[in-house]
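Supplementary Note 3. Input sequence used for the single-chain structure prediction.
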Amino acid sequence: MRIVLVIGLILSSLLSSAQSGWNPEPHKTDEGLTFRDDLDFYLNIYTKKEIKKMRQQVNVWKMSWDKMLRQAISDVRAYSEGNLNDGRTHPFTLNDTEGKSHTLTTDSGKVRAFMFASITNPPSRMQIPRWDKLMEKYDTTQVEIFIVYGRELHPGDNKFRDYPQPKTEAEKLAYAQQLAATTDLPVLVDGLDDKVLLQYGQVPNACYVIDRSGRMVFRGTWADSRKVEMVIDQLQEYYKPKGS
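The predicted structure, written as discrete structure tokens, is reproduced below.
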């Protein structure tokens, strides 16, 4: 999925910085609200200045251009058509960087939102301050927001030359601890086998929102805090007692 970011960084610089055409209006069913997926390939959520900053952190010409394009198209088609994510909540238990265990169940009574991130993932690192602000907005007894530390996206590349792909759980934990030092969000650490990342579609900066009953109600290729906020706000409004 490193390929996806590289192509996205190149092509997105030619596109508008406005939000993509994602429609925030939910579907209402007997089970509750469900939102449209935001499987946007391009990094339209960022300004040209922000994209330039991210491009400076990686060497976009490192691999064969033809091979890169073919792999990018294959990766995006697989994810966007849903073959790598079945739209369901996959329960997991992971430790955070301080050793505390966290469990994502299919029924917690809370709205939960999380994104995948890593040290060598420029878009996720740019999102972290925005997600910190998002966390400040909500009552933690009702909304839980966290990060899952996934696979390194550009290990050893350019600005990340001091961060090769970790070979042990201890090395991965050390990277995750460095990332955790930049955020107030809990950072849960996926294993070297990337089990949780693979269950959720192996997209390096994807985000997901799970409703109170444990249903996955939103997923996005890029963890745009604004869209996550729209989804959470509408869920919170939906859950308000009638007449309040």
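Residues 1-19 have pLDDT under 50 and may be disordered. The beta strands are 27-29, 32-34, 92-95, 101-104, 111-117, 143-149, 187-189, 207-210, 216-220.
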